[in-house]
Write a structure and sequence with these properties.
CATH topology of the largest domain: BirA Bifunctional Protein, domain 2
CATH architecture of the largest domain: 2-Layer Sandwich
Number of helices: 17
Strand content: 15-25%
Number of domains: 3
Radius of gyration: 30 Å
Structural class: alpha+beta
CATH class of the largest domain: Alpha Beta
Distance between the termini: 41 Å
Shape: elongated
Number of strands: 19
Length: 624
């Protein structure tokens, strides 16, 4: 069965049970300061679980986009992903355990025809400290359901050393069979809803015992163990409690919150525990095999990391999360860079992220329309982020290897990890992974100290920045710095030789530039400056640096503040006949490195006799 068919069957089934289908909420939660991402189907429903009336009624169903940043390091095995779809249905103070468990059993065994002999379930054991009883009601319902299809269902109290004990229904403690946004009851804040649950597992068989090297070969097995035999495919949460200062009390209403992983149910249908061998990933695997010349089998970890991370980032950018160093954007950046690193391991040397994203957009755009609408933006952002990291990846890996080998470190000092972070763009988690792969560790405290020192210097030491006000030395910022030279030359040509730079702030995103001029620029003047700069960009002119005395620089026609006290020698950067200027910052080597069209976005007053321009270089489409 294909993912689209399973999704449709699920939603249509609950539609027959008088549920209203609602679209997925965004991966970026609205009005929920407790988390950066939507990590479950429950999050967008909190208000209604607490008693607020849903405008569409008491029975709701959907397929919710979900992202769990905490699972990034887990990706690489056959079942973990950061992004997934959660098939969900809710009773908001309507039906409860009997209907929910009966309908789920019907869906699994009758609609999509999973063999009930391979289905195992767990229930809440009860907790005296919480004063919440054992869930005997769910056990009774499950027994009747299994009996209706001729399957004996023995219920047992889980004891790890006793393994399966011939059981079909397992009582587990609160650590395993309780659900809330915050996790187990001890971690729940006052006012948080939660409740016991009944989870459903698919049994792939005891093939783990066939493999002589399996670490679980001689260990007792049970549905919640990690041997690979069982896979959780759904969780029926009976959301009826709220945490108060006095302990747990009943909510105003009894709710049902079901969540079932679409990819995991597909794996059960395939009777193959590798969720990456479902149709969702088939075209992505083929693409990576073509690009790398390697097969999925034998390279599973790298393939899985790349496919998961790029699918997740495709959805994140589609919901407005752009790679950056802050908040949600940090995780998008980390995912892309981790994918590129694993691609490097496979021998993929050229940009590929945008092409893989297109495959996922095609797979999902009929269900998640925004992906098709935002395709150009998604691909462009991925390509930009990949470009940025690829430019330093090889050098960073080489620096890491040389530094570690030279020092013969078992614990890598913060100075080395911070240099990889600052100079080569390696998120600290990637450095930690590199160390782990080499059997080493990092000194995280030293890294944090180095980072804090850098942040303090950045905030307080303006003299630490070189002339020109650049935010950093990155490739994009360096391009913008060179463009600023061309813009000043254009301004002087259009507005006159009395125009001089009065300050600038240049980042990877834009140029902010102050210059001496007494009045507002006319539209035709701005257009003339844009044309001058764009002609220079397209001219493929070499950028040449010469060292000379300030007097020689002045006599050569270089632009500069000659009332300023320069040193004995200055650097003069020339861009053909377009620009000649004294400057101490980094520059590109040729204008052909600037990919795009220069555009003045805003021109306004900065202070008396000084104007301010905000300008960008707009990226060209591939077909332009």
């Amino acid at each position: 069965m294909r993912a689209k068919e399973l999704r449709q069957k699920y939603l249509e089934f609950f539609q027959t049970k008088k549920h209203i289908i609602v679209p997925s909420a965004s991966l970026v939660p609205e009005n929920d300061p407790t988390t950066l991402f939507t990590g479950s189907g429950m999050q967008p429903m909190i208000a209604y679980l607490m008693g607020e009336k849903h405008p569409l009624g008491k029975r709701i169903t959907d397929s919710q986009k979900s992202f769990r940043s905490g699972d990034i390091e887990e990706v690489g095995d056959n079942r973990h992903t950061t992004f997934f779809e959660m098939l969900g249905n809710w009773s908001l103070g309507d039906y409860f355990k009997k209907e929910q468990l009966s309908w789920m059993f019907e869906f699994l065994t009758k609609i999509i025809r999973l063999d009930p002999k391979n289905i195992y379930v767990t229930v809440f054991r009860g907790d005296e400290n919480l004063k919440i009883p054992r869930d005997n009601e769910s056990v009774g319902i499950w027994k009747e359901l299994f009996k209706s299809v001729g399957v004996e269902a023995k219920d047992v109290d889980f004891v790890e050393k006793n393994g399966m004990q011939g059981g079909k229904i397992f009582y587990y403690p609160v650590e395993k069979n309780w659900w809330s946004r915050a996790g187990v009851p001890d971690k729940m804040p006052i006012g948080e809803p939660g409740g016991p649950d009944s989870e459903m597992f698919w049994d792939f068989g005891e093939e783990r015992k066939i493999h002589e090297n399996s670490p679980w070969k001689n260990e007792p097995c049970h549905p919640n163990c990690d041997c690979g035999r069982f896979l959780e495919i759904g969780n029926n949460v009976f959301m009826e409690y709220i945490k108060t200062e006095k302990g747990f009390e009943f909510l105003k209403q009894k709710n049902v919150d079901f969540g079932g992983g679409l990819e995991r149910i597909l794996a059960a249908l395939n009777n193959n525990p590798d969720i990456f061998l479902t149709d969702i990933f088939s075209q992505g695997i083929k693409k990576l095999e073509d690009l790398s010349g390697k097969k999925y089998v034998g390279n599973e970890e790298a393939f899985r990391v790349i496919l998961d991370h790029l699918r997740a980032t495709t959805f994140l950018i589609g919901d407005g999360v752009l790679p950056s160093n802050k908040d949600q954007g940090y995780f998008a950046r980390r995912l892309v860079r981790r994918a590129v690193r694993f691609a490097h391991r496979l021998g993929i040397k050229n940009n590929f992220c945008g092409d893989v994203a297109k495959i996922f957009i095609e797979e999902y755009k009929s269900e998640y329309v925004n992906l098709g609408v935002e395709e150009e933006k998604i691909v462009a952002e991925l390509e930009r982020e990949e470009d940025k990291f690829r430019s330093t990846l090889g050098k960073g890996l080489k620096h890491y290897k040389l530094a570690v080998e030279a020092g013969k470190f078992e614990i890598i000092p913060g100075e080395i990890t911070f240099n990889l972070y600052q100079t080569y763009g390696f998120p600290i988690e990637i450095v930690e992974e590199l160390a782990k792969e080499d059997g080493k560790k990092i000194n995280r405290e030293e890294f944090d100290e180095e980072l804090k020192k850098h942040q303090d210097l950045s905030r307080t030491a303006s003299e630490g920045k070189f002339k020109g006000g650049l935010a950093d030395h990155s490739e994009k910022t360096t391009q913008y710095h060179t463009v600023a030279h061309l813009m000043l030359a254009g301004l002087r040509k259009v507005l006159g030789k009395n125009v001089h730079q009065k300050g600038s702030n240049i980042t990877e995103e834009r140029i902010r530039f102050d210059f001496s001029y007494p009045e507002k620029m006319a539209e035709e003047q701005k257009k003339a400056v844009e044309d001058f700069v764009n002609v220079a960009i397209k001219s493929k002119t070499e950028v040449v640096m010469e060292e000379m005395t300030p007097e020689e620089a002045k006599n050569s026609g270089a632009e500069g503040e000659f009332g300023h006290k320069y040193g004995d020698r200055v650097k003069v950067y020339s861009i053909g006949e377009y620009s000649r200027e004294i400057c101490g910052g980094p520059h590109i080597k040729n204008t052909l490195e600037i990919k795009g069209i220069f555009k003045i976005k805003k021109e306004e007053s900065s202070s008396a006799g000084v104007r301010r321009i905000k300008a960008v270089v707009e990226q060209l489409n591939k077909n332009e």
